[in-house]
Amino acid sequence: MLVVNLSEDTAAVLEGEVLRLSGQVDAGVVTRVYDQGLKNLSAPVTEVDCHSLKGADSTCLALLLHLQSRLSKPLKVVGLPDELRVLVDLYGLQDLLELA
Q1: What is the 8-class DSSP label of residue 95?
Q2: Tell me: the pLDDT tens digits for 22-65?
Q3: What gap in Å lies between CA 12 and CA 32, rounded to an integer?
Q4: Which residues contact 18 (CB under 8 A, 6 or more apart)?
Q5: Where are the domains positioned within the chain?
Q6: DSSP character for 42?
Q7: 50: closest CA among 25, 29, 16?
C-alpha cells in the first residue's frame, strides 16, 4: 500500500490496483504523488476512485491519462468531478476512460 498525505484533507492512497484520491488535486499534488510513488510502480493502476475529491484541475486529468497510458484498456474512474467530466467530453477522451 502506498499512502501520500499531502495535507490534512488531501491524500493519495494506492491499494493494489486502485488509487483513491481525496481533497484538492492540483499541479503540486499531482507532482508529489507521481514523484513519491506512481512513477516507479511495477503494476499498473486499473481504477481511480475520485469520490472524496473536493476539487481538481486539468493536471488531475493529465494524471489519469498517464495512468491509462500504461493499460491496454480504458482506465476505470469512479466519482469523477463534474469539472473534469466536462474536460473529458471537450477533449473526446471517452474511449480512454471508463467513467462509472
Answers
A1: T
A2: 999 999 999 999 998 888 888 899 999 999 999 999 999 999 99
A3: 10
A4: 45, 46, 47, 48, 49
A5: 2-99
A6: S
A7: 25
CA distance 21 to 12: 5
CB atoms within 10 A of CB 69: 10
| pTM, two decimal places | 0.92
Dig out the grid coordinates for 51 from the structure.
469520490
Non-local (6+) Cβ contacts of 21 within 8 A are 11, 12, 48, 49, 50, 52, 53, 56, 60
Identify the CATH class of 2-99. Answer: alpha beta
